[in-house]
Amino acid sequence: MVSLRSLFASAVVSFGFMTASVGQAHAATVFGSLSADAGSYEPFAIGEDVTLSACQSVFDGAFPISTYNLCDAPTVSEITFTWFIAQVSSGAVTVLSGPTLVLASGGVSDFINSAGTYIATLSISAAPTISLTGGDVGFITGPTNDNDTISFTVPEPSSALLLLPALVYVGRRHRRKQKRTGLSQA
């Protein structure tokens, strides 16, 4: 029976795990996997923008054990960040790309123009070898992609808030009417 440790050690030998000197710093080949993280978002009101960020996504090094933020990678262009955003009630899906997205809301032409629940799936992918911080090189030992799905809510405006301008108008009108009635009786 071959142990997982001996299999991994032979893989390291066959891939030639090395540290290369770069000036005084040592660059390493790190074996690991991609881990997508789409973040978490509080409900927000129509008229506010929401920023979706994939910058919690990491390369998890298994050998040696280390974690690298993908947005900090020196060549972040080696990594593809794709967002699939769907509004639950309409079923409409929009595909956008980039590690960070700012979604406007409230206007007719804005991305989010109605209240409801939205589901966002972040898909990250990369070539089997990527550049990491510190000059290290990441070798992806498993799938070269990963996904994470989250949801966020844009609540309906409160009916009391919708009535507030109308109540102010009625109150002002009533005061003006009382003022005119009081002046005409005097």
What does this structure look like?
Strands 1, 2, 4, 5, 10 and 11 form a six-stranded mixed β-sheet that branches. Strands 7-6-9-12 form a four-stranded antiparallel β-sheet, with no helix packed on it. Strand 10 (129-131) and strand 11 form a beta hairpin. The longest helix has 27 residues, at 159-185. The protein has helices spanning 4-15, 159-185, and strands spanning 19-22, 25-35, 50-53, 58-63, 65-69, 79-87, 93-97, 100-103, 116-126, 129-131, 137-140, 145-154. The protein starts with a helix and ends with a helix. The protein is 21% helix and 41% strand. The protein has 186 residues and is of the alpha+beta class. The protein has two domains: 4-155, Immunoglobulin-like; 159-186. It has two helices and twelve strands, in the order H-E-E-E-E-E-E-E-E-E-E-E-E-H. Mean pLDDT is 79; it is low at 1-24.
User: Strand content of the residues, in percent?
Assistant: 35-45%
- Biggest sheet overview: 6 strands, mixed
Question: Considering the protein shown, what is the CATH homologous superfamily of the largest domain?
Answer: Immunoglobulins
Indicate the structural class: alpha+beta
Task: List low-confidence stretches.
Answer: 1-24
> What best-fitting shape do the alpha-carbon axes yield?
elongated
Number of strands: 12
